[in-house]
Specification:
Blueprint lengths: L5 H12 L5 E3 L1 H7 L7 E5 L3 H7 L4 E2 L6 E3 L3 E5 L1 E4 L9 E4 L3 H5 L10 E3 L1 E3 L4 H7 L1 E2 L5 H7 L2 H13 L2 E2 L1 H9 L9 H12 L4 H10 L3 H4 L1 H4 L14 H14 L4 H9 L4 H4 L12 H15 L4 H12 L12 H11 L4 H14 L8 H14 L12 H8 L5 H16 L6 H12 L3 H29 L4
Parallel strand pairs: 2-5, 10-11
Antiparallel strand pairs: 1-2, 1-8, 3-4, 4-5, 6-7, 8-9
Helix pairs in contact: 7-9, 7-10, 10-13, 13-14, 13-19, 14-17, 14-19, 16-17, 18-20, 20-24, 21-23, 22-24
């Protein structure tokens, strides 16, 4: 097994020095057996909550199971068994017991039902199941799921996160008891679903949810696309296309919002499909899908900001971007609709959409060209508005009225500031305005002409650099 941090060893020692048992249990042992670094550390003991707190005065008890949190990351819980689950989620009562074996018997899956205090305690074959890469319920699967219906989701979550399969008897029990999931709060379902979505095996996880009849309880809208064919632009049906788009997002390690948008981007297609075969159409599916996405995420109690973001990504995923046909004004409009801060995520959704459609390249030339246009219109234009002086300042300093001299002076000042940005300050510009004000018309025009040439060179260089960055011509 892997290394145990000194502070965890110290907590174990503190318990044992005072005559108590102290076993590392659950997920941390699973991770150590798999040679992974645990994120959380759990200790099970025969000490009561009061005895634990007396040994760790700075700790606090945070639930009815007597769990005591030490140093913010170590959770110490008395050995316990649980009595009857009336609500299919929480035990009606708990009872402290004296052995770690009794404690392990109440746990959900064999990979989580191991303990260690120097020697591994593994009464249900968790180590062997890790080798076989299977998720297996402890004891009778039906009993475990009837105790806590969230375990139905957790079976799929562990399989997706760990890259395991679900053992046949356990999988059968998940499917047979799927309806129990309706008794679980939407927030807890959402949290488990997100752990599936954020795993490397997100697409396989969603497919497991479908096969075990859990998806129809969580997001039945996704099943509307199952076996619904598309048209000549798509190789796969609506559901499989969505899974493939999600899979690309997961393999590229895109963020949660992009993964959700990739899964939901075409969710409106079945409701908007008109016609059959290669010529079927799905007009306005992006708008319908955006509304469906918001409804799904609201139902699962997602935060408002995340709902709004994913909804926008779904709504605008179908943007048009043919080279030579996309104007800078249409790109600015796309930026306004999606938000400059979300444009990269929108492009990632489009890439996932392409791969999910069977396209060989995620980012073709025209998508790179769009990136170039986005950067171009996003940059601050080279303009006299950049100056710390304006036409009114020139008129006041020189005591003149509006006229062409003001425009020429501004162009000259801009050329000077582009060459040396530090000169863009009131004091320097005022002195320069006075100098230029004394020049004859002909000399002023000549200097302004040279400045405009320099400004054009800077604009051209910026554009060439942007094109080079995205390999476009």
């Amino acid at each position: 097994m892997g290394e145990i941090p000194e502070n965890v060893k110290s907590a174990q020692k503190q318990l044992k020095d005072n005559g108590f048992q102290a076993f590392l249990v659950g997920g941390c042992i699973r991770d150590l057996v798999m040679k992974k670094e645990p994120k959380d550390w759990d200790i099970a003991t025969d000490a009561t909550p009061e005895q634990i707190q007396s040994l760790f005065p700075d700790s606090f008890t945070n639930n009815k199971f007597g769990t005591v949190t030490v140093q913010g990351i170590i959770e110490i819980t008395p050995f316990r068994v649980e009595e009857k689950y009336t609500d299919k989620r929480h035990p009606d009562s708990v009872k402290w017991v004296k052995t770690v074996e009794e404690d392990l018997a109440r746990r959900d899956f064999t990979v989580n039902a191991m303990a260690s205090d120097k020697e591994l305690v593994d009464p249900y074959g968790g180590q062997e199941d890790i080798k076989k890469k299977v998720i297996r319920a402890v004891g009778k699967p039906e009993d475990r799921f009837n105790e806590d219906a969230l375990r139905l989701m957790r079976a799929v979550r562990f399989a997706a996160v760990l890259g395991f399969s679900i053992e046949p008897k356990t999988a059968k029990a998940v499917k047979q008891n799927a309806s129990l999931l309706k008794k679980v709060s939407k927030e807890r379902i959402r949290d488990e679903f997100l752990k599936v979505i954020n795993s490397r095996n997100a697409a396989e996880g969603v497919e497991m949810l479908r096969k075990m009849d859990l998806l129809e309880i969580i997001i039945p809208e996704l099943l509307e696309g199952y076996k619904v064919s598309q048209n000549k632009h798509h190789v796969f049906d609506c559901y499989e296309h969505s899974l493939r788009s999600l899979d690309f997002s997961a393999q590229k390690d895109f963020n949660e919002e992009v993964r959700l948008a990739a899964l939901f981007h075409d969710i409106g297609k079945p409701r908007t499909k008109r016609g059959k075969g290669e010529d079927a159409t799905f007009y306005n599916h992006e708008a319908v899908g955006a509304k469906m996405t918001a409804d799904i995420m609201e139902r699962l109690r997602f935060p408002k900001k995340e709902i709004e973001k994913v909804e926008r990504l779904v709504r605008y995923h179908l943007f048009y971007y043919n080279v030579g046909e996309v104007s800078e004004s249409s790109v600015r409009r796309l930026l306004r609709n999606v938000g400059k801060e979300s444009i990269e995520e929108l492009l990632q959704v489009r890439m996932a959409d392409r791969i999910g459609s069977g396209c060989p390249k995620a980012e073709p030339y025209k998508l790179r060209h769009l990136r170039y246009l986005i950067e171009k219109v996003s940059q601050d234009a080279i303009s006299v508005k950049m100056l710390k002086a304006n036409g009114q300042d020139i008129m006041e300093t020189l005591g003149i009225k509006p006229g062409p001299r003001i425009g020429m002076i501004l162009d000259i000042l801009l050329g000077i500031v582009l060459a040396d940005p530090e000169k863009n300050n009131k004091e320097f510009l005022e002195k320069e305005i006075k100098r230029l004000g004394d020049l004859p018309e002909q000399d002023l025009e000549k200097e302004a002409g040279k400045s405009r040439e320099e400004i054009e060179k800077v604009e051209t260089k910026k554009d060439q650099m942007a094109k080079g960055k995205y390999w476009v011509t």
